[in-house]
Amino acid sequence: MNTKVDWVQLIIVVVIFAGVTAMGFMAARWRRTGNLDTLDEWGLGGRGFGTFITWFLLGGDLYTAYTFIAVPAAMYATGAISGFFAVPYTIVAYPIVFVFMARLWSVSHRHGYVTPADFVQGRYGSKLLSLAVAVTGILALMPYIALQLVGMQAVFETMGLGGNNTLAKDLPLLIAFAVLAAYTYSSGLRAPAMIAFVKDFLIYIVILVAIFYLPHVLGGWDAIFHAAQDKMAKPNQVTGKPTGSFIPTDAGYVSYWTLGLGSAMALFMYPHSVTAVLSTKTRNVVRRNAAILPAYSLLLGLLALLGFMAIKANVNVKGLDGLANPQLAIPRLFDQEFPSWFAGIAFAAIAVGALVPAAIMSIAAANLFTRNIYRAFIKPSATPAQEAKVSKLASLLVKVGALVFVLGMDKTIALNLQLLGGIWILQTFPAIVVGLYTRWFHRYALLAGWAVAMVFGTVSAYNVVNPATKKHFGGSLANIPFTHTPAYIALTAFVINVIVVVVLTFVLRAAKVADGQDTTHPSDYTADRGDPGVADVIEPAKS
Amino acid sequence: MSRLSAIRPVYWISGVLLVVAVVVPLLVPTYAKKDPHLWGFPFFYWYQLLWVFLSAILVSISYRLLRAEERRRRAEQGLGDPEKDGDQ
User: Fold this and answer.
1) From the candidates A31, A53, A90, A98, which should be mutated to test the interface with B, based on the most B CB atoms within 10 A?
2) Would you call B38 helix, strand, or coil by DSSP?
């Protein structure tokens, strides 16, 4: 229990936080091309980021505070299947992205698309399908933003911030969030792009130090793995089954690879990933990044192992409410094993690590609302300046929504909520990715497949009951229908989705049901910067 | 098959490399074991971390192959170099 405030840690965190905040406001003038009054500017940073900036931006975007807290927490609590799958997941994500993302870049730049739903609208000529994709994106982003807050909260709690009443307990979070909202509003995507440099740098330092220093204090890797193995083999007091899995057995193989593949396919369906990709200057920036982003995957693997170190170090994970909370494993590990000043840097890294993705996610959700709900249904005649204004306001609303989410929910389900988001977002894959290659799928078939899979996925997830707490949404694995093999619900739902789409496409084509107008041209999918019809980036004014 | 045979070998090679990079790390039965250990790491853990590097190498090779192909195609169509003014 930590009820005393650790001043050294607090001062370091506040100083770094203040520095980052200043950067966030200054970012409005970074690589300036003109006014911030269009979505291309505010929401995509001027669409001119090169490989170097994009590497930091995507790294900061994809490897979030959730990663920092929840992956090791899952390793700490139940071992490999719930935590270490993140490694194959982030390994196989990049080859997948490499294949289709350049095409999305090209068609989006030729047509000025800002969101994945914009592309769906242009390709299928269906407002409904586009709305489905947009709503799914917003739904999936909300818990994800909330998760960033959970990460911050765990840090603040470990530093000893948190009083007896709700206001004092959540005050640091409210302040951090108000600041984030303010600079996102004023600088748009440039703010997280700039802050990402600081964040990634801090995180690399912290992890590398932890990986070399902690095994040295804890008696070596061998001892760490043994401690983990012993814990996972111990029967759970409630269910009598082993606590977790140290190395997956036959029964866990399918769970492990479906979690990896399903998450990998979902990763770049998330609107915030697409936002970062569309902010790049040329078609090949994203491909180059697919080859160099795995540096972060290595980091993630090492990070996951910190969860095992927390087992060996025997950290106390009781929260302020007296209940065990695995999310506290990593902050407590740093608090316990490192000098105050270094723990302070680590906590700052996590807190800043929450800000970058939260900013990009709120921008992505705001763009979806503006383009695919506001402009599509409410005000088709919206000017670029009006779009930017609506997006700015929407980004504030999204953050407030996430805040309500986090203050009113049970924190132990943070990881599972994010996994529920993953179940939803993967259902947009047929419309987006298959749409980049062929127009064969019928728009209504895609809509039906999406709807069936969304319902199936949500119901399946609801029916997973945590044996210890008896709560629903107890996990992301359920038996594949008609079998006894547990698999990742998202991927099962995706297979059902594709089957429905294919069958209905045949039916609808046979019945000659009208399909939408495709406004894209085959040459759009290979277009690059400087080609006719591709809006060129405005070069940043030399200062 | 006429459409398939029209695909250039470069695309075939890249495709195969990328499929390997996606499929092999997901073949859990091939690595769900403890031995051999490496620096105290059970096989299951170090083997997956090793694939981070292997996958990055495979993607890099694909990228180089495709970029050469793309440049050739753009030159044929008389399109300019999109990266003429640096990339940061």
Assistant:
1) A98
2) strand
